[in-house]
């Protein structure tokens, strides 16, 4: 790490602390040449390989932007979108990969969007799961209905078990 004051090519770490969110490390450094102190922040980089082959850094804002289009006209707030993007970033970081395909990120969005809004989920899934016909939509809708039926059955069984 070059000193930002005298450009000396080395520095000594005096203190290291993890950020509140646990995603970065703040290091306090001192230059052995000029003696001045400065701070650095280190984060693990996550890059995305686009279909065109271009590599760029992961961006929560791009996740929000893509999902916002699917949520147009739906009762989804900006806070909901920000939380969804955070969950997606956590999920892709949990894979341990430093570089992901853009399509993998789109697929990581799906389970979180499904919980948020089923219509937006269908819109988004039609792109990322490459729906080609109405049968693809019918299959996705049937899956949503089956899962909703299971959830309803579990609620009924739970209520019967508690005497509600």
UniProtKB/TrEMBL annotation:
GO terms for biological process: negative regulation of DNA-templated transcription. InterPro entries: ATP-cone_dom (IPR005144), NrdR-like_N (IPR055173), RNR_NrdR-like (IPR003796). GO terms for molecular function: ATP binding; DNA binding; zinc ion binding. Keywords: ATP-binding, DNA-binding, Metal-binding, Nucleotide-binding, Repressor, Transcription, Transcription regulation, Zinc, Zinc-finger. A zinc finger (unnamed) spans 3-34. It comes from the Bacteria. Its cofactor is Zn(2+). Binds 1 zinc ion. Residues 46-136 form the ATP-cone domain. Negatively regulates transcription of bacterial ribonucleotide reductase nrd genes and operons by binding to NrdR-boxes. Belongs to the NrdR family. HAMAP family: NrdR. This is Transcriptional repressor NrdR. The gene is nrdR.
């Amino acid at each position: 790490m070059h000193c930002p004051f005298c450009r000396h090519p080395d520095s000594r770490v005096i203190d290291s602390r993890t950020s509140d969110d646990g995603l970065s490390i703040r290091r306090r450094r001192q230059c052995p040449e000029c003696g001045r102190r400065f701070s650095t922040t280190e984060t693990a980089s996550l890059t995305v390989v686009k279909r065109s082959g271009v590599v760029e850094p992961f961006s929560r804002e791009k996740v929000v932007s893509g999902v916002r289009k699917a949520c147009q006209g739906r009762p989804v707030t900006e806070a909901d979108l920000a939380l969804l993007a955070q969950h997606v970033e956590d999920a892709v970081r949990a894979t341990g990969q430093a570089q992901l395909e853009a399509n993998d990120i789109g697929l990581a969005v799906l389970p979180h969007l499904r919980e948020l809004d089923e219509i937006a989920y269908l819109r988004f899934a039609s792109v990322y799961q490459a729906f080609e016909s109405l049968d693809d939509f019918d299959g996705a809708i049937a899956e949503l209905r089956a899962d909703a039926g299971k959830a309803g059955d579990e609620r009924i069984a739970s209520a019967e078990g508690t005497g509600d």
